[in-house]
Each structure stands twice: as structure tokens, then as C-alpha cells.
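Sequence in, structure out.
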Amino acid sequence: MNYLHLLDLIVELYTPPPFSQIYFEKYFYNYIQLFNNRIFKIDYIPVFWTELQISEYNKTQLQDTINQLDTKQSYFTIVQNDDGIHISIPNNVIVFGMGGIGHIPLPLTYENPELFEKYKNNTKHILCSFVGSITHDCIKIMVDELSHKSDIVFLINDVWTHQI
């Protein structure tokens, strides 16, 4: 199946979020273009899920396209959104998901070059930090287990916001 019409739809709808330069989905897509998509034994579905799900998009059109996948083939896709993919995904699609959603978990990433440049040479006193809201049980467990440690910082909001 040719995924170019999916990419056309995504490019049309893409508006970058205020706090990041590029989502991992697009970074990964750009990276594999260097290899002409020939580095995998299963087909990659290049949908920029997070960008679509932040904006208004036609879920029905995307769902219809995904439903046309060959059921005898194996596929994979990547989603950065910590809530996963908001449409139904067939069983023959492996989802690499940041934030623990999907078949294979990946770490949830965040990029802010301006902050990196500002603080990169500062002495570090924090082993790790978490900024966000408790949206999943795994986050609650993490907070319960680690909040007593002095070199780990949590900033938790009741409701998710893009303000950091």
C-alpha cells in the first residue's frame, strides 16, 4: 500500500506546537528517508499521530485508510502522544508508543533548544524530573515510589497544560 496520500493529509493539517521543534514521529520519518525506507522487514506506517491528534482532523478518513491495510502483512508505526493513537488499529500493526501506550514502550521525549542552550553548562543537582499530570497508573506508581528522593523533582498539575 502506498502511504503518500496519508502524508499529504498530515502535511496539510500540521501546525507545530509552541513548545517543541519536531515530534519524534516526524524525526523518525525524516531519519529513515536517508535509507529509502529499506531498513525494515515490515512496512512502516508514517503517520504523524501526535500532530494530527492535537489539531482537528478527519478521523473517519484516516480510519478508512488504516482499515484498507493488507491483513496478511505486518506493519509498525510510532506515536509520541502519551495517550496513544485515537483510532482503531488492526492487530497486524505493532505500535511503538511513548508514554507506555502501545505494544512496545518508548521513552516520552521533549525538545526545547532554547532551554537546552540556556542551561546546558549549569551544574546539575537533579537526577531526573517529571512535569505533567497523572494521566496513567504508571505515573502514579512512579510518583509514589520516587517522590521521597531528594534528587528527583515532580511538578504535577491536575490538568494537562502546555505551559511548563
